[in-house]
Predict the 3D structure of the following.
Amino acid sequence: MTIPDTQTSPRLPWDAADPYPFYESRRRDGNIVWDDTAQAWLVLSHSAARDILSGPGWSADPRANPGAELLNSAIVDANMLFTDGSAHSRLRNAVRDLFGRNFITGLTDGVDTITADIIDAIPDGEPFDAMADIALPLPVAVIGAWLGLDPEQCAALREYSPAIIRLLGGFTDEHALEEGLSASAGLIADFLPAAADRRAHPRDDLLSYLAANRDLSLDEVTITAILIAVAGHETTANLLGAGLIRLLTPDLNGHLPADTFDTDDSSSYTELLRLDAPVQATARTATTDHQIDGTTIDEGSPVVLCLAAANRDPHVYPDPDQFRPGRTGPPPLTFGHGAHYCLGAALARLETAAALRNILRRNPELITTPTWRDTTAIRGPQTLPARFTGHAPSH
């Protein structure tokens, strides 16, 4: 994702609460279309987005964009989201083994315990906000325990994350940029001394594992830990919240998807990921000239990969707006593709599955209309008013 200068930052032109009509209106003009508001090429098809994410001649580094005066900030310079090639591999390889599927599966019992503690504390019949009371605290608790954060650091993570995730998502205005940099500085001030302490006095936690890697500077240890903490919990929280809204909203036939949702079927979660991608878009800059789907994209041109639009490409997913577990076809691009494929994908799926199992057995219902965050690159609910009505009957 790119963080351009405030004067040249793309303005994403869709509605944060419901971006899908915009994607479909622009798709009628082609798979790759120029957008005057964003001042960038919008990539809407699954194949083109996948090829750009995994192909040569594209950069995730903001400094590759010649049209932007770019930030000099630790949150950018030492961040694997914004690096290419060997620099990216070095940062990613420092934590790659801990995010493998086998290792993440070993966290299942711990995640289940944390999830049950949070959800079981909510009484039947009492209104609650599923975002504030479940979706946000759950991944913070999981990542906090894994990194070895103390309660004050977890509180700081909750406080600073919304502003930082807008910065990491790019496409910010001047106000959001200033807020994101301020929040980043605040969280770095909290995490950097902890990273230094773990390097001198290691413990049995992820932060100590990172700090023990002498190929990483303390700045890189700190930024990597912040990236894992912020991006990981924000993605999971937004996915869980949007997924709950889908499952608890009647379909066109008046049926509640939650009534037939199979919490043991991995394809059910894949379909939620396809339909309700938390990361709507990511950015790349062309480092050479390209011809894609009959469109010429010149070197130095910015592109916005509309991952959520690619996930609803009708040429890949028939009836793309319908929830259909068990679909065939390529995986959705919710977690990206290629070298920058999301490290935390397996953990996000594990946390979402644990949460939905525990939530749906309590027979939840929406009690008023949810609201959505006004963030176009990262989509998620702001509030999700709900109530548990008792344990659901077994199917």
About this structure: DSSP finds 15 helices and twelve strands in the chain.
